[in-house]
Design brief:
Blueprint lengths: L1 E4 L5 E7 L31 H20 L1
Length: 69
């Protein structure tokens, strides 16, 4: 998890994002904490973080498979 830093560079405890290694193969969606906000990528409707990441993962997998051909 990526935490927000205050001006004095101390962690605030607020989660500002997450980092997923090996994203194309990630399937541990239950390990991602629930956030009380919706997240949005320009041009998409606001979604929960898990739903947004699952959609992005599907698009990246499709691009990856296309590039391999």
């Amino acid at each position: 998890m990526l935490l927000t830093l205050a001006e004095d560079e101390q962690e605030t405890g607020e989660i500002s994002g997450i980092e997923i290694l090996d994203f194309l193969d990630f399937d541990r969606w239950d390990a991602i904490p629930t956030f009380p906000v919706l997240w949005q990528i320009e041009g998409w409707e606001p979604l929960s973080m898990v739903d947004l990441l699952k959609r992005e993962q599907a698009l990246l997998r499709k691009q990856h498979l296309t590039a391999l051909r």
